[in-house]
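Need tokens for this chain, all 223 residues.
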Amino acid sequence: MTTPVANVMPIFATPFAVVPVGAPAELNAALAALFLERATEAYRDPAIPGDALCFRGREDLFEWQDEAIGELRRAVLAGVCAAVMAVNRYTEAEFDALGLQARARMVVVRPNGCLPATTAPLASWYALYCVAAPPAAPARADSAALRLYAIRDPTMFMDAANWRLREPFSGTHCLWRPSPGQMAVFPASILHEIALNRADAELLLVAARVRFTHGGQVAMPPW
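Here are the structure tokens for all 223 residues:
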């Protein structure tokens, strides 16, 4: 008996991009000094409950007038556009005609701190740029890692034939370890978190909500 050949293809695929922003070490050093200096109550987002182990600034980071922030903004937005363009059907000219809106904040995850699981509302894309990362914690492989939750199939019946699916069909969660100069870009609707930082140094991140508009669009919901 001839064994039938199955034509298997992924559907409902979710894009996840890792973009080397290319920011020099000097820029990251300047950003780290700036973030640690300004991780104070005056810069904290008042809409988020205070957390001594995880500082989240206001979403006006890209509006700061510091030279380092201007360089960061250009690099981050260029990286986001490269990732989004890679998964779209737009021509380069069509994509360049789109409008871009972004809100960004600094995040300082201190030792024993974490970023609770969340999504990014009123945006289509989310970006996490790593300014500085703590060393790996031998006792905790996921220390200070970005964890993205696979929640698309929460009601799937599990049996012996679908709990060990290979990539890209596996329903397991995704883990990405932040590294200075690298940026993760993914759909803003994905539930994500930064796992407990078990190292003895801070994880410094830039978190950005991003969305795009086209020429015929007359309005966009306020942030």
